[in-house]
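Input structure tokens:
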């Protein structure tokens, strides 16, 4: 009788341990934020760009259209990288050139979205996406540390004439003084990708302190006007 009782207790204990084991749940990719940076061959985005370069003589003002097309993928060090073919034209009255002006690359894994711009690897997004989350955008290159931060995650944002219902802002820098200004943001929309870029990186004339007279620097605005996601 004692042996039967011990067998019953053992079996009940093992059943209890098994039944209480937590069930592993695979996170929903949409909750992690992967869909803020869709990458598929054939997808493209067209932007209106305004660029002003300042020097001590006079600013150089330029406007043009930029098209980024996701090309073929390659595997490099176990990482799937997609070519980003970049085309520019003066405006919509011109045809896009047959050959890209430059080729960048993008890649995405479970923890981050990486873009290579002019041979520098930048961590554009990190996953999961969370309000006020910060990281070093230059962690994969030789440039000095640059802290990025998420703000306004999941909120709407108007870029150009379009209001996008679910977006996030990556604040790359937001500092200013009587000497200089460094303001850089990128805005991403869910299921679309990059919709807006704004940069103001300026040095002020130190012979006119407090007047914020621009000596050198750049102002740059890039606004999405059309896109196709494959």
């Amino acid at each position: 009788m004692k042996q039967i009782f011990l067998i019953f207790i053992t079996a009940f204990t093992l059943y209890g341990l098994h039944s209480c084991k937590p069930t592993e749940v695979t996170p929903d990719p949409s909750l992690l934020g992967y869909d803020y940076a869709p990458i598929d061959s054939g997808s493209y985005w067209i932007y209106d760009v305004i660029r002003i370069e300042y020097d001590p003589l006079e600013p150089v003002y330029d406007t043009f259209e930029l098209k980024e097309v996701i090309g073929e993928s390659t595997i490099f060090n176990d990482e799937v990288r997609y070519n980003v073919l970049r085309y520019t034209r003066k405006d919509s009255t011109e045809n896009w050139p047959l050959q890209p002006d430059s080729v960048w690359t993008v890649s995405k894994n479970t923890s981050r979205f990486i873009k290579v711009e002019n041979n520098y690897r930048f961590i554009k997004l990190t996953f999961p996406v969370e309000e006020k989350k910060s990281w070093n955008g230059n962690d994969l290159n030789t440039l000095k540390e640059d802290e990025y931060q998420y703000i306004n995650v999941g909120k709407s944002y108007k870029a150009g004439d379009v209001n996008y219902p679910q977006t996030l802002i990556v604040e790359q820098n937001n500092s200013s003084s009587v000497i200089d200004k460094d303001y850089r943001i990128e805005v991403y929309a869910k299921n679309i990708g990059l919709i807006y870029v704004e940069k103001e990186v300026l040095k002020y004339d130190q012979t006119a302190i407090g007047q914020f007279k621009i000596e050198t620097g750049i102002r740059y605005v890039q606004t999405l006007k059309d896109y196709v996601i494959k």
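The helical segments are 2-19, 29-32. The CA atoms of residues 23 and 53 lie 57 Å apart.
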